[in-house]
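Minutes, project check-in
Item: structure for the 173-residue chain
Input as provided by the requester:
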Amino acid sequence: MDSLRLRNLVGYLVILVLPAVTLAATQPRSGGVPSTRESNLSKEAGGLLNQMHMNAYRVENSADHLASYFSEPELIAWETDSGVLYRLSHRDDDMDRILSRLQSMQRMLPPDQQAEIKKIAPAVVELTDCTQAAIQFLNLHQLNLFLPQNEGYSRDIYNEASRVVAATANAGQ
């Protein structure tokens, strides 16, 4: 075989073999040993779950603080409630962004992290809905903040945040 044919044959082999080698390198390794990419994604997810936990913990505390106003009526004011709800809505937005990222990588994560994401997703959505409902109520009832629904929204926000806190208690471990 002359050298030109030999070079062409080697070139064809490289073209045929290189994609298979590349594909094999990106697939999970057998024996349950995660690839570097999977390990990095798992670490990123752990960090995001930890952020979710901290945000939910802060929302839980703020909602508890908001609910405490109802035991001391002189503390209830539209401006105070709106300030707390404004901060809560920003935390909700952060949690929604984190959840979106977690869901985008969910299929590539270990089963325990996948289960954690499945568990927190409905609570995060419900938490956001509760906060938005509380904001709408506050805007419509600025002069009637003592209505029982207002206190109920605070409890609902607290309960949903507590669900997220509990579901992410072991985040990053």
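Outcome recorded: The chain is about 80% helix and 0% strand.
No further action items on this chain.
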